[in-house]
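Subgroup meeting minutes
Present: P.N., E.W., G.H.
Scribe: E.W.

1. P.N. recapped why we're keeping a running log of single-chain structure predictions: easier to compare across weeks, and new members can see raw inputs and outputs side by side.
2. G.H. added today's entry (306 aa).
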Amino acid sequence: MHHFPWCPLPGNRATRLIAWQGWKLELPRRWDPVKLEGDHANGFALFADTLRPRLGLRWQTPKRKSGFDSHSAVRLALRDEVGQLAATEATQFPVEEDGDCWQSPLLYTEPEPPGRDVFSVYSRTSHRLLQIAYHAHRRERILADSILPTLADLPVDRATLWSIFDLSCVIPGGMNLQSQQLNAGDLGLTFSDRFNRVNIRQIAVADLALKRQSLDAWITDQQKNSSRYFLRRGAFTDIEAVTHGETRPARLSRMHRRSRYFWMWNLHRNLATIGVHDPDRNRLILLHGSDESLMQQIATTVGCAQ
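Output recorded in log:
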């Protein structure tokens, strides 16, 4: 049984909660992710509005050799980003959220925009080096006053919040992101560990989606990617699923591994797909994976960051 923590709701409707690869922060709602690369150890995320790039996150896991100095690592990363002269002008900037997590937080502010304000810090939680570059086109303190105070690093060995665009959920510790599908109105994230694999898909707007085809048809569509190795077993079943704090009717379809692939030990013997309509958020939620109880528990967290 997996325990999922309660997900707090963002207090400011003008901002959007972003939680990705263990990082959590709030950004203006008009900024959308345009590039998401890498994994938990090393990666890059870029956010932009309709006119230009606004914020970039880059993280890496430095080798912790004997004598490793986080302050020197942060200084070096900042120097590589803005140059030696600018790096010497950087000042200490204490991050309020989970302050014990951070080591050597440095902030360089461009004195004469346009330019970049750059923040570098080392996290004791994940042993990663994070760099945030804000593209400033006029003198403003949105990075220092609004964004950095919301920054947090979530432990990877615990249930972790993920939130991107309109899709948010809590995933058990130890499950890694395997793939993403972030299309307008059709968002999907796939996670796995040694034992389980689960895909969370959210379709908007539900009223329009259900006019195109029934919930059973959406479930069948979700199962197509697995149909080479798995065969649907039995009829659709009526079940109940909890989403957004309410118990709702849902549909369940099970698949089993085709007999000719019995020798493929890395394939699960059974898969299941759960489909539920969340009328409060006007979304269809589809969960496809190897553990029905796990999917039921993840379903209770979908939309928790809205």
